[in-house]
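From the shared-data thread, chain only:
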Amino acid sequence: MLTLTLGVTLAVASPPQPTIRPISVQGQVREVGGGPGGRPQALLIGVDTRHVLTALDPDLRIELRRLAGAVIKVSGVVGDPRVAAKDHVLVDRYEIVEIGKGIVPRVGRLAMLQVGPQERLVFVDESGQADLLPQGWSRRMRRYAGAKVWMVGRRDKDGSFRPQRFSILRGPRKERVRDAPKGTPARR
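Structure, as tokens:
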């Protein structure tokens, strides 16, 4: 009887590991279809590039789509395994370069402020500058207090700020009370 022993070594090639690299790119945002589940997504169109913009935060993904038409500069990474395709940028932050015709908006939040017996809507930009908005805005826009917006406007001779264009980037924050004692109602 003859015994034959075969030694076989199998080499399994592991797939190449993605190369995660930082990226900073500028272009105009377009909202396009074809995202996961057929949902819309933000596409950044640069001079020689096209990148799908995404974020881990679902609110930031919505915000990026709401920037459609604006020229922005994004910073993030490409090649992150959590993002499906190589042309996708996982966005960490962005800056609005212009909203058209070289116009650069102020970005900030809307807030309600008690001024004497009445409530007034205030726009507070990222630098901390606050401007009372015209009285009519308080009635129409009060439900957006807390919302992140971009705004373009002018100053009247009396120093008041008159908005000319704006866009809501992110809806109002929902207040949550954590670790409140039992029986304490949550604020809304």
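Residues 58-66 form the longest helix (9 residues).
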